[in-house]
Design a protein that fits this description.
The protein has helices at about 25, 65-70, 95-105, 105-110, 120, 140-145, 185-200, 210-215, 230-235, 240-255, 280-295, 310-315, 330-340, 345-350, 385-400, 435-450; strands at about 5-15, 35-40, 40-50, 55-65, 125-135, 155, 175-180, 300-305, 320-325, 355, 370-375, 400-410, 450-460, 470-475. By secondary structure, the chain is α/β, with parallel strands linked by helices. It has 2 domains: about 5-205, c-terminal autoproteolytic domain of nucleoporin nup98 (2-Layer Sandwich), CATH 3.30.1610.20; about 260-475, Vaccinia Virus protein VP39 (Rossmann fold), CATH 3.40.50. Strands 2-3-4-1-5-7-6 form a 7-stranded antiparallel beta sheet. The protein has a 7-stranded mixed beta sheet with strand order 10-9-8-11-12-14-13, with helices on both faces. This is Small RNA 2'-O-methyltransferase.
């Protein structure tokens, strides 16, 4: 195929995380070579325009064969406008063809696996992405609506469709630049889903398997994305039955009873002795409030607020000026708003509360400016592979002066007679830590982000297995 017979679509991704050349390990593509792959629509090339320890950039260049694309097209004879099959923007603009090439070429990187550098694959690193020609007839604001909720900073440049004919107006093709600190696998999955969404077209017939592809690539972020309906609709080519199926399955992710995310055992296990006046949940909230009072925190975030029980008590503290209640679940926030009586609050009361939908594994500027952040029975609901993203968001980006983390003590589980041996306290728990494991995690996080940490028991402190709940109190270290 000669140069005259094809056109190219380009995407570049760069990092400055030292040593930057390790990007080659994450992508499983050596920086000193050009890698070429045969795709149904042409040929994909991976190469590195720059590869130093200070900065490394990888480019994905897709050579599209317009004639070959039509030759392999499935459909009824004469389908569509015959000339339009050959004269269109598919060989020039980022679309589902680039997304497919991205997945084929970087398939292993998209899973987050890297045996050579597993710690780097799990880490959020600075990334810059440039897609010079993005088709977006919905306007220049759509890339921001899609990427900013995921933690990206978005810069969009536009220009006239034809500089010599101003009357034709703005071009629908955008120059999009993304920058942010994310895991590489996250970035690739964002692009895989959202490039076709921006373009709002696919070069192949969309079937039921596309729902599974969408939910796999968007597993960690799509359910909480404010544009999830639009993303599903466009990704699935506006096929109503597929869109309904995808949204219904996303709703299942968002349908856990909020009160069940509070170290629950489904009523099967009694966490407190029958004669104890306070439940373990009440003791947790009491311990958190006591620490907040001792630090005179004024602006407090209840991150992972669930049904709002802690937020309600925080609002009852006169010394707390503002409460930010955040949760990834829209359903939980609706319940919290109802239980807090938001609609019945006075203007002065309402001004003290902000309810937001947010995921703690993505940067959100609304989480900044807090004196204290509380993660009460939250971390154990996060996949271990996502904990580094939570750490980067809470301790690195939001960086409040005080962070309180409560989590179950797995050693104490043997004291629950009706809990099967080896079972976790709740079906949604991804893990439960021993006291030593929490101390190891908390010590590392504190050292990496400039905090000191101390540990407190919550509930009866059994001399053999410790308390049922453990509390880590992180205080930002003050420079001498």
């Amino acid at each position: 195929m000669s140069e005259q017979d094809c056109s190219v679509v380009l995407l570049t991704l760069a990092t400055t995380h030292p040593p930057a050349r390790d990007l080659g390990f994450l992508l499983h593509k050596h920086p000193d070579r050009v890698h070429s792959f045969t795709e149904p629509m042409g040929t994909a090339h991976v190469f590195y325009p720059e590869a130093t320890d200070d900065r490394c950039t990888v480019a994905l260049l897709l050579e599209v064969d317009p004639v070959g694309l039509v030759r392999g097209r499935k459909g009824a004879p004469g389908e569509g406008f015959a000339l339009a099959q050959y004269v269109n923007d598919r060989p020039y603009a980022a679309s589902s063809m680039l997304a497919m090439a991205l997945k084929d070429v970087f398939r292993t990187a998209m899973t987050g696996r890297c045996n050579a550098r597993p710690e780097l694959a799990a880490a959020a690193i600075p990334l810059e992405i440039h897609v010079p020609a993005v088709a977006s007839r919905a306007g220049s604001d759509l890339p921001r609506r899609l990427f900013e909720p995921l933690g990206w900073r978005v810069a969009v440049a536009t220009g006239p469709l034809d500089p010599d004919v101003p009357a034709w107006g703005e071009s629908p093709y955008l120059d999009v630049r993304l920058s942010g600190t994310l895991r590489l696998a996250e970035a690739l999955n964002h692009l895989y889903v959202l490039l076709p969404v921006l373009d709002d077209a696919k070069h192949y017939r969309v079937g039921g398997d596309e729902v599974d592809k969408l939910l796999r690539a968007g597993a960690d972020w799509l359910a909480s994305h404010p544009e999830s309906d639009l993303i599903a609709r466009r990704y699935l080519s506006h096929r109503r039955e597929l869109t309904r199926s995808a949204l219904a399955r996303l709703a299942e992710v968002d349908d856990t009873e909020p009160e069940q995310l509070d170290d629950a055992l489904g009523g099967a296990v009694e966490l407190d002795p029958p004669d104890r006046p306070l439940s373990l949940a009440e003791q947790r909230r009491g311990a958190v409030l006591a620490v907040l009072r001792s630090h005179a925190a004024r602006r407090v975030g209840d991150l992972g607020c669930g049904e709002g029980l802690l937020a309600r008590e925080l609002l009852g503290e006169r010394t707390i000026e503002h409460v930010l209640a955040a949760d990834v679940s829209a359903r939980a926030l609706r319940i919290a708003g109802s239980r807090l009586g938001v609609e019945r609050m006075s203007d002065a009361q309402r001004a003290r509360l902000t309810l937001i939908q947010s995921s703690l594994t993505y940067r959100d500027e609304r989480l900044t400016g807090l004196d204290a952040a509380v993660l009460m029975e939250v971390v154990e609901h996060v996949d271990p592979s996502r904990l580094s993203a939570l750490e980067a968001t809470v301790f690195g980006y939001a960086a409040p002066g005080l962070v309180l983390v409560t989590t179950p003590n797995v050693e104490h589980n043997v004291r629950f007679a009706t809990l099967p041996a080896g079972a976790l306290r709740h079906r949604d728990h991804r893990f439960e830590w021993s006291r030593a494991q929490l101390r190891a995690w908390a010590g590392r996080v504190a050292a990496e982000h400039g905090y000191t940490v101390r540990h407190l028991p919550i509930g009866p402190d059994d001399p053999e297995v410790g308390p049922p709940t453990q509390l880590a109190v992180f205080s930002r270290a003050v420079a001498a």
